[in-house]
Amino acid sequence: MRNTKTKSIFILMVIMILNLMILGCSSNKFEKEVEVEKAGVKLAREVLAGGYGLVTTYELKKMTDEGAEVLIIDTMPMEDSYKKAHVPGAKPFEFPIPDMEAWDSTKTAGKSQSDFEALLGSDKNKTIVIYCGFVKCTRSHNGAIWAKKMGYPKVYRYPGGIFAWKGAGFPVETGE
């Protein structure tokens, strides 16, 4: 983010998007707004701290429809989620939910930092989109932070994840 005004606009946009996504979570509009605010601020803080961008469901669908060269990574556990449904073309690489400050292969299904770098590839300028299950899931935050730490500048987090993808009625792939 270049300046405070851009950051403020970004945070407001995140909160508005989340408002649309969380409408059914609480019994009244005031309680709903508290949930929207909480999720929006949490996501905005993660994005600002991680230095990566965001992509919406429809933006990601447009990328895939137009054949854009983008590496899509699903950070959910292979057995629990990835095999059941993932965004078409996505590659699996499990990350934990809690912040992973230092690389810990016990939290990445036994895979090393070198394994992740091999998945990302040698082209540091490629577009990378990382997602997990839903907005509150932070597996994608960990994946995006690690991609940025490894020197990839075009990293985006898709916060709606597979729930938003399915919610939009887009096709999914199953299996490995």
Identify the notable features of this structure and list them briefly.
7 helices; 5 strands; 10% strand; Oxidized Rhodanese, domain 1; 176 residues; alpha/beta; 5-stranded parallel β-sheet; 2 domains; single chain
Return the string of H and E elements. HHEHEHEHEHEH
Q: What general outline do the C-alpha atoms trace? A: globular
CATH superfamily of the largest domain: Rhodanese-like domain
Kindly identify the CATH topology of the largest domain.
Answer: Oxidized Rhodanese, domain 1
Number of helices: 7
Largest sheet, strands/sense/barrel? 5 strands, parallel
CATH architect. name of the largest domain: 3-Layer(aba) Sandwich
> Order of strands across the widest beta sheet?
1-5-4-2-3
Low-confidence stretches: none
Count of separate structural domains: 2
CATH class of the largest domain: Alpha Beta
Provide structural commentary.
The protein is built from seven helices and five strands, in the order H-H-E-H-E-H-E-H-E-H-E-H. By secondary structure, the chain is of the alpha/beta class. The protein folds into two domains: 1-50, no CATH class; 52-176, 3-Layer(aba) Sandwich (Oxidized Rhodanese, domain 1), CATH 3.40.250.10. The longest helix is centred in the N-terminal third of the chain and has 22 residues, at 29-50. It is globular. The N and C termini lie far apart (36 Å). The model has no long low-confidence stretch (mean pLDDT 88).
